């Protein structure tokens, strides 16, 4: 019984201690000129979908929920955000080469069609980010139009 009490105390100390791990904040006060909305004519309805379902992980401006203030949740979130931005960053889209922009647009369409994005783990806590069939079609139609115009 003594060892169980020691383990419990150790766990509490670890959980409290992990709260002091510094984290980055992925937020900007402005929309950079390289944002996709300035590079392509993104219709308002498509932009709203992207901001609701994609921008938290794929931009420089995350809307943090309440539980992001609790570790280790924030560390997990920061990892997802970092990975998401490495793969695609809508705020940096204009800094990509024309070829890379085309590839990113093509991947967006394919992943939306295959229900690979948004990630199921993200949707668990962000049900409003779930793409309806109509949302998916709007994104796909816009991307395919853009790709045809870039040929």
Characterization of this structure:
The mean pLDDT is 85. This protein has seven helices and no strands. The chain has helices at residues 2-18, 36-39, 44-53, 73-87, 98-113, 120-125, 133-149. The chain has one domain. Helix 3 crosses helix 7 (133-149) and helix 5 packs antiparallel against helix 7 (133-149).
Brief write-up:
The protein has 151 residues and is mainly α.
State the major sheet: none
- What order do the helices and strands follow? HHHHHHH
Shape: elongated
Taking the alpha carbons of the first and last residues, their distance comes to 72 Å
Quaternary organisation: single chain
**Percentage of β-strand residues:** under 5%
Rg, Cα atoms, Å: 19 Å
The number of helices is 7
Secondary structure class reads mainly alpha
């Amino acid at each position: 019984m003594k060892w169980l009490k020691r383990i419990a105390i150790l766990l509490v100390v670890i959980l409290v201690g992990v709260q002091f791990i510094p984290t980055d904040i992925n937020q900007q006060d402005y929309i950079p000129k390289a944002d996709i909305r300035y590079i392509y004519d993104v219709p308002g309805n498509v932009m709203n979908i992207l901001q609701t379902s994609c921008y938290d992980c794929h931009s420089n401006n995350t809307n943090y929920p309440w539980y992001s203030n609790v570790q280790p949740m924030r560390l997990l979130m920061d990892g997802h955000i970092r990975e998401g931005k490495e793969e695609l960053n809508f705020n940096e889209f204009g800094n990509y080469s024309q070829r890379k922009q085309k590839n990113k647009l093509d991947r967006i369409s394919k992943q939306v069609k295959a229900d690979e994005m948004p990630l199921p783990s993200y949707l668990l806590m962000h049900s409003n980010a779930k793409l309806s069939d109509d949302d998916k079609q709007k994104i796909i139609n816009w991307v395919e139009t853009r790709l045809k115009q870039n040929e």
